């Protein structure tokens, strides 16, 4: 007996690669393979360590954005949440305060003074401050969610307004000043090592250097824990199925008995909480609470990385593993553009072009999926 | 731009010769700056890059577009690329501390140009004596204001404050008050926040002038805000030359081309001058000598004493100001 298996046509093969969960990973590997001969520094331990450390906070924010995009929404307020939670945490745990800098801020004297923040030196103060960040973020997410789910307002408009109001509030709290003097235990959350590797003296540089690179870090552990939990929630639970049902067709989901309002509210809360967790890492690595964190082109990075991963802007299609690969590719892209010594303007233009290409690819993949389903 | 480049290059030829004279072989220098919004940063950028490239060094430029996290990542990328030294114009004093720590942990010598870390004990820190420079400039207009006003009149003064996360802004503010407080009972002071942003300064200055239409004296913490001040003052009849009725006494700080032009025209009365070429020279010398001496963590604070260019010394000291040198080149 012989079995005849139809050999896939070249078009089908391309379609399979495009639809593969690992497409962006393959793309990243191909990108590295293509550039490595010209930029050998790309594969040096120091550069790999850099790429990894730049990935983790972005991965956490992008994970939250993935949930929102999965319901065909968007959360523009993540950057503002990062800013306000950064200030909230810093004003509570700073070990010192500088009146010359913060004297005009409304928090001076009430929450922070020359001896530091309210929770400075308090047992468990750091944990309480982090809890305060998460609660503040959850409340902002709740407001977004209620406005979108209950009042039926467009997510774009709601989160845009939240972004404006919350970032203004962050600036008001510290009168736009950074709050430095954070405790070492907090800074370790953004920079601390669990495993670092010694590669010996670096010979190329003029000054012999210690070459010890961080690989397993606290940010890595935190980001992977968030991503694994999010993956489980999105792909292994009823909650996740509801998310995809809403993203695919909200009317059908309502008719099928999906608790749409509750799920939408929960998604915006998840997105904001992810932003607060990322805020811990960003504030800790920069060693200050900063009311301008998450401003500028930050959202471009978050949404770009998520979309590059393959999460659909039309909703109903998202995976955390895609977001992971998207963030990896995006960080690699930024890193290599730096290695190429391009100007900041050229870097942003290239990034924009790549995001546009990813959005076009999303359209193509959606079409292929529809064609295949027929 | 070409003229600026040519003039900058000409102004620092002597310095370039001195650097090559240190004997440092061609080195890879990472030059990371927060943006190039003001004339001071543009001229500083030009001075540093031109000098280094003319001396045969490779410059890796990184523009953070005012994003402290991006600048931190760019510095880490530079370190991974194995640069021999870093010169940074940081986003603010706090991020400068983190960046210096990161570079020194990797044994890469680093110089901080003009905007000092909040902790100036680490790295090669080149900074102007902002407080003294500001005080000298403000002293000159305070004395003039008092001399021309009735003895019992309280005068209204405005200070446009920079980003107080930047120690330069704090120093300039302190210098202003040091001058004003010598005659504390004679002045009402209104503070206008700029955050080193022209749009913010415009909005806040408009509000301040609307609330306090009578202005006797104004100090801006940076010369780059003079065009903004003009756009607020001119429609209100406050933009007048010296000798004209309604002239507001004005001083700034930086010493840029616009300030030089305005002092010559009589709209501005004084400006505190940072010696840009001295500062660029000091930063470059610092890192190149560190490379030459295999010194991974050089720590030194280099202060630029600066001076004030006023209407009184304009004729003699004009060409000591970098902005006037650039203006003359045009």
UniProtKB/TrEMBL annotation, chain A:
Entry keywords, A to Z: Cell inner membrane, Cell membrane, Membrane, Transmembrane, Transmembrane helix, Transport
GO cellular component: plasma membrane
Topology of the protein relative to the lipid bilayer: Multi-pass membrane protein
Transmembrane segments: 23-43, 55-72, 79-97, 117-143, 155-175, 211-234, 263-282, 294-313, 320-337, 343-364
Chief location: membrane
Subcellular localization(s) per the UniProt record: Cell membrane
A GO molecular-function descriptor: transmembrane transporter activity
Protein name: Ribose transport system permease protein
Automatic annotation (TrEMBL), chain B:
BP terms from Gene Ontology: response to oxidative stress
Signal peptide: 1-26
Annotated InterPro entries: Haem_peroxidase, Peripla_BP_I, SBP_2_dom
The organism of origin for this protein: Bauldia litoralis
The Plant heme peroxidase family profile domain, residue ranges: 77-330
Main subcellular location of this protein, as a coarse class: other
Pfam families: Peripla_BP_4
Tagged with keyword Signal: yes
GO CC terms of this entry: cell envelope
Transmembrane segments: none
Organism domain of life: Bacteria
Keyword Cell inner membrane: no
PANTHER family linked to this entry: D-ALLOSE-BINDING PERIPLASMIC PROTEIN-RELATED (PTHR46847:SF1)
Protein name as it appears in the record: Monosaccharide ABC transporter substrate-binding protein, CUT2 family (TC 3.A.1.2.-)
Keywords assigned: Signal
Entry GO MF terms: carbohydrate binding; heme binding; peroxidase activity
Compartments reported by the entry: Cell envelope
Stated family: Belongs to the bacterial solute-binding protein 2 family.
């Amino acid at each position: 007996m012989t079995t005849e298996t139809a050999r896939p046509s070249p078009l089908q093969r391309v379609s399979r690669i495009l639809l593969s969960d690992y497409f962006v990973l393959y793309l990243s590997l191909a990108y590295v393979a293509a550039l490595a001969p010209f930029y050998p520094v790309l594969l040096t331990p120091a550069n790999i360590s850099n790429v990894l450390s730049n990935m983790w906070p972005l991965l956490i924010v992008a994970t939250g954005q993935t949930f929102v995009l999965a319901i065909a929404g968007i959360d523009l307020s993540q950057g503002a949440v990062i800013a306000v939670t950064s200030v909230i945490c810093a004003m509570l745990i700073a070990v010192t305060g500088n009146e010359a800098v913060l004297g005009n801020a409304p928090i001076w004297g009430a929450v922070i003074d020359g001896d530091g923040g309210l929770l400075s030196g308090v047992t468990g103060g750091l944990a309480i401050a982090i809890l305060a960040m998460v609660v503040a973020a959850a409340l902002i997410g709740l407001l977004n969610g209620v406005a979108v789910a209950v009042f039926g307002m467009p997510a774009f408009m709601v989160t845009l307004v939240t972004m404006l109001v919350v970032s203004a509030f962050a600036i008001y709290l510290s009168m736009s000043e950074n709050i430095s003097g954070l405790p070492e235990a907090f800074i370790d959350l953004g920079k601390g090592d669990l495993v670092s590797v010694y590669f010996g003296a670096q010979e190329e540089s003029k000054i012999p250097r210690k070459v010890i690179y961080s690989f397993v870090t606290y940010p890595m552990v935190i980001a992977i824990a968030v991503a694994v939990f999010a993956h489980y929630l999105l792909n292994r639970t009823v909650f996740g199925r509801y998310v995809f049902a809403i993203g695919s067709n909200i009317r059908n989901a309502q008719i099928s008995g999906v608790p749409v309002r509750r799920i939408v509210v929960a998604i915006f809360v998840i997105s904001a909480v992810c932003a607060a967790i990322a805020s811990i890492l960003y504030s800790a690595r920069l060693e200050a609470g900063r009311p301008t964190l998450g401003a500028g082109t930050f959202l471009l990075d978050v949404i770009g990385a998520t979309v590059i991963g393959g999460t659909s802007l039309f909703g109903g299609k998202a995976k955390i593993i895609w977001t992971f690969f998207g963030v990896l590719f995006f960080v690699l892209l930024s890193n290599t553009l730096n290695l190429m010594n391009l100007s900041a303007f050229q870097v942003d233009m290239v990034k924009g072009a790549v995001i546009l290409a990813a959005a076009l690819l999303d359209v193509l993949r959606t079409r292929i999926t529809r064609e295949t389903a027929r | 731009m070409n003229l600026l480049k040519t003039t900058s290059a000409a102004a620092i030829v002597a310095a370039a010769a001195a650097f090559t004279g240190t004997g440092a072989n061609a080195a890879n220098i990472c030059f990371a700056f927060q943006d190039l919004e003001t004339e001071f940063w543009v001229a500083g950028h030009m001075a540093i890059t031109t000098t280094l490239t003319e001396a045969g060094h490779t410059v890796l430029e990184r523009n953070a577009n005012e994003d402290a996290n991006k600048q931190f990542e760019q510095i880490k990328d530079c370190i991974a690329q194995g640069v021999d030294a870093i010169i940074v114009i940081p986003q603010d004093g706090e991020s400068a501390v983190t960046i210096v720590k990161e570079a020194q942990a990797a044994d890469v010598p680093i110089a901080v140009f003009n905007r000092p870390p909040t902790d100036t004990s680490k790295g090669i820190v080149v900074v102007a004596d902002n407080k003294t420079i500001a005080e000298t400039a403000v002293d000159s207009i305070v004395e003039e204001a008092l001399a021309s006003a009735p003895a019992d009149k309280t005068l209204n003064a405005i200070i446009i404050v920079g980003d107080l996360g930047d120690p330069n802004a704090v120093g300039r503010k302190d210098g202003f008050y040091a001058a004003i407080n010598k005659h504390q009972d004679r002045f009402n002071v209104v503070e206008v926040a700029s955050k080193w942003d022209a749009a913010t300064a415009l909005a806040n200055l408009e509000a301040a002038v609307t609330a306090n239409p009578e202005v006797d004296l104004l100090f801006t913490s940076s010369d780059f805000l003079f065009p903004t001040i003009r756009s607020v003052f001119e429609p209100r009849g406050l933009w007048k030359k010296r000798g004209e009725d309604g002239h507001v006494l004005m001083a700034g700080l930086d010493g840029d081309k616009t300030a030089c032009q305005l002092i010559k025209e009589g709209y501005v009365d004084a400006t505190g001058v940072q010696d840009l070429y001295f500062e660029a020279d000091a930063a470059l010398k610092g890192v190149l000598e560190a490379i030459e001496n295999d010194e991974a963590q050089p720590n030194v604070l280099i202060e630029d004493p600066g001076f004030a260019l006023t209407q009184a010394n304009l004729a003699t000291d004009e060409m000591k100001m970098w902005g006037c040198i650039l203006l003359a080149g045009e």
